Amino acid sequence: MPSPALAYLSISEASQLIAAGKISPVDLAGACLERIERLDEDLRAFITVTGDSALADAGLAEEAAARGDLKGPLHGIPIALKDIIDTAGVLTTSGSMVHADRVPGADAAVTERLRDAGAVSLGKLNLSEFAMGGTVRHAYGTPRNPWDRARNPGSSSSGSGIAVAAGMCLGALGSDTGGSIRGPASYCGIVGVKPTYGRVPRHGVTPLSWSLDTVGPMTRTVADCAIMLQAIAGHDPRDPTSSRAPVPAYPTILEQAPAGLDIGLPAELCESDELAPQVKAAFDEAIYTIRRLADTVAPVSVPAIDASPAPVMVISDVEAADYHAPWLRTRASEYDENVRLRLLTGAATPADAYVRAQRIRSLVRSQMLDALERFEVLAAPATHTAAPPLPTSAGTGGSFGDLRDDLPRRVFAGPGSLAGLPTLVLPCGFTQAGLPIGLQLIGRPFQEATLFRLGRAYEKATAWHLQRPPV
Amino acid sequence: MNDKPNTATGLERARQLAETSGIDPSGPLLAAVEERLGILLSELDLVSEEQLQGVEPATGFSAASEADGA
Lengths: 471, 70
Description:
By secondary structure, chain A is α/β, with parallel strands linked by helices. Chain A contains 17 helices and 11 strands. In chain A, 41% of the residues lie in helices and 13% in strands. In chain A, helix 12 (309-331) packs across helix 13 (337-348). By secondary structure, chain B is an all-alpha fold. The radius of gyration of chain B is 18 Å and the shape is elongated. Chains A and B meet through helix 12, helix 13, helix 14 and helix 15 of A and helix 1, helix 2 and helix 4 of B.
């Protein structure tokens, strides 16, 4: 099989071929490493490539497969990790010069779980500094969208989105606080799931905002997302926020037809004035398809959604400022200017404003849960536009120079973040310029399986997920 | 909310953090912090006391503990 075809196999396909002895994990890892070598000087998806250890691990996976000793559907599958996820003995920078020489002594919980499941790590992925969206000067090179290199790949899991879309790995982990999986998945034309808060343990993942952070998979198909989430979900005593709720068999459940599901369309998102016309048209077309798959599709109003962007920003800035306080006191000049601005704003925020933000969060959560009493899934565009041009302005204003204009556009990620709800993003069309457009499906707490069912059925009815960027 | 005395205290704290880290506190950064903070606080104020009546602050533990039956 030619190298690009190998690298663009889905996890499901590659897993079956490995189990049948028809492809070699070493060849699979090699095909991905070849693409990283060829493409990444320009795309800047990776901060660290662990090629030698990946090939060694793939060799061990191949020997085990030959013995029939398979660890599961991730056995021998090449993946990569956002560089805020600890990897024992491997540089973990968080995309910052502040952590330029940080080598953890132990793996994060999710790293352990992926390794135990047989996955082969190709390295560590570029991101916005410390996962704070708005980074202008990336310390390890500017990540570029593979669909158009002059465009933003989305933040903060930028490298995760690029690497999966460009066939540099078969799946990746990202993290999502205020949209950091959902945005890059939408802009890069791939599938990503922000799990329910507490579904995936965060032990060993550098925090941005303790009360909002989640870790989740980014892949090219819904089934692959389900496979990766299966491997990383579940309680870990080292993360007190991780849930003991049972983890369903996602890859099995996702094949159940979504007939009978009631789908709500939040007017505050679906009818937003911020939506670009081509995004709105693609979303309307997606809903036309979903009407044929589900039971009921009806509008719903969730008024508090409009108030969601500022609380996400305030909560994450304040919590991040506390985590970063030791470095802010001594090394503030080493941060990207916009990140420093966010951190100092967090340090300056009054306590009553933080509490107000958490109260608004309660209001948003309450109204979202009310809507999800009536509907199993809420559907909306993932972002208001397709990938915008890369930010060119640096300085204290930077991309936050127009915060008043920026906040209303953050409404598409705000409710899922504040309410801690699972959200699946998948491609639902392209602009006339060839940029991907994303659909988001928001579910009830811990009901990721329902989102996978609907997403999988949508994927079967469309071909958007089969499109590849021109790289 | 942004006219309250503790906003000034917060900005002083940001100024001190910048200064101890070698950044000119009289430069544009602190002005940008003040502007950004003002925008965020005024956005929070758009949600009225009436809307928030009886609403307690959320915690990150809410979603996980609810599913655990806690």
